[in-house]
Amino acid sequence: MKTVLITGANKSIGFETARQLLEKGYYVYLGCRDLKKGEDAIKQLHAEGLTQVEAIQIDVDDLESIKNARKVLGAKIKILDVLINNAGIGGAMPQNALETDMKVFTDVFQTNFFGVIAVTQAFFDLMNASLAPRIVNVTSGLGSLALHNDPSWKHFAVKPTAYVASKAALNAYTIVLANNLKDTAFKVNAVDPGYTATDFNNHSGPGTVPDAAARVVKAALLPDDGPSGQFYSDDNAPDTGISPW
């Protein structure tokens, strides 16, 4: 049975991603900062008949928490097939490029960028034991430099600077990581789930959580001949799903 760890998985897109992978037969580890919320999420999944799931306490902002999560998971399994770096924050708004407090930048980058790197490095050995390891970094169209430089692309009148920069950095890390692993079985990709109605944006997005999660799941299930080092964005590349960085 294939295994997957999803960070930030007790609600919203992370939770729905867990549900969809459970339905596909994966054993899912819900990465949650608050273990109680993770256990509550599991009760909901159990009520739906989805039982191959456990909660793992992990705070991606805390190196000791990440190390402990690796220790806990390593005592349960020797192979991790899929890692979905889903945990993320938007940061205090508004985020003007010249006026945003440095604390906002450091907080947002800690979760959206440094946290992803720390988690990926911590669990890499378990993934390296998989025959078909997949790493999915949940990003945003707002992190695409190509889209920001396209005059026909309109998103926010005032761009959230810290969030945009953190996701652009995450996209760059995804490219480099995929390149580092190009001669292996790893597939490493970034996925834009789309402008989705969640707590993250006060439910202002037009997209649905199930559709957003399906995009993440698609990258987690790539076949052996699937691409790596790509930026998947159905919203911005309707024909192929693969959008320019």
From TrEMBL:
InterPro entries given in the database record: CBR1-like (IPR045313), NAD(P)-bd_dom_sf (IPR036291), SDR_fam (IPR002347)
Entry's Gene Ontology molecular function annotations: oxidoreductase activity, acting on the CH-OH group of donors, NAD or NADP as acceptor
A Pfam family: adh_short
Keyword Thylakoid among record annotations: no
Family: Belongs to the short-chain dehydrogenases/reductases (SDR) family.
Swiss-Prot/TrEMBL keywords: NADP, Oxidoreductase
Top-level taxon of the source organism: Bacteria
Organism: Pedobacter yonginense
Region (Disordered): 226-245
Protein name: Short-chain dehydrogenase
